Queue: 2 jobs
Job 1
Amino acid sequence: MEKIFDLNNISKLTYGRGYVYSLQYHIVWCTKYRKQILKDGIAQACKDLLQLIAEQYAFRIVAMEVMPDHIHLLLDCRPRFLISDMIKIMKGNLARRLFLDHPELKSSLWSGHLWNPSYCAVTVSDRSFEQVKHYIESQKKK
């Protein structure tokens, strides 16, 4: 059983059996060809599906914003997965569910792929945590 201890009300140290960790990442990935298809009801569907995936794989989404052509996430996660594996899980599960729920998306994409294969993953320190969180939350206002 894991115990979570707050550090300065920002990040948390999590104590498990034989390990202690505090891992936060700022992750960004884009739609294929930067197509602006994540809008209207699809943006909200992305948020809801990402929350479900987070619960299923036991990580916490601290901040999230879905822009028309990319997604920003601030994650607090366990060392259980490599970050590259977590991103594959999120992108793959999200694309599969979006294509099932919104088949019209495939007609907007030439190759049938929803996501660009690349992504950006940056570690977040205690000092930059609030700045990154604010940056993600203010994306729609720009």
Note: The beta strands are 3-7, 11-16, 19-21, 23-30, 60-66, 70-77, 120-123.
Job 2
Amino acid sequence: MCAAARRLTAAILAGGKNTRFGGSDKAFMLIDGIPVIEVLAAKLANLFAEILVVTNNPSRYNGFEGIVPVTDIIRDKGPLGGMHAAMKLAVAPAIFVIPCDMPFVDENIIGKLIGQYESMPEAEALIPVLGESPEPLHAIYSTALVKDLEKFLASSPDLSVRRFISGLKAEYIKISETEKARRAFTNINTPDDLPAQ
């Protein structure tokens, strides 16, 4: 594990309602017979000293080694609520945010993000851009943003992550649009998106 990674906490967001997934918990969908939460945790353990899972059902994660289940502090605010909890509870001064439905993350891409963020001491966030699309839920955020995020959650009618980051001193990093990179940023939104087992 690189020294830089020790200054970041990984935060897996697993609190969604999963309506497009039939209400099933996407963190426990199987990839090659293994629950996706295990797949993600194994990859992130190579990069981060602390891994949080933000979930509405923390007891479901008690048997998983190497992850710390936490719950939203401010409820019903979507991904931003999960990010808020991670910012409040992380040991490190920055978090790498990833949703639980993005199981094909690439350790090299994440390592590149970590290195870039560490070289930008003034940045409040570092957002990768694949093609023309920013990926704010595969990104790094300073935990010093927690008060700004609390104000945003209390006042903004638009609780999208993109709306929140529009007011930040965010940096962006272009990711080459290779097949491997596209796979790394793929979300599993419905059961039909799962690879053939």
Note: The two ends are 31 Å apart (CA to CA).
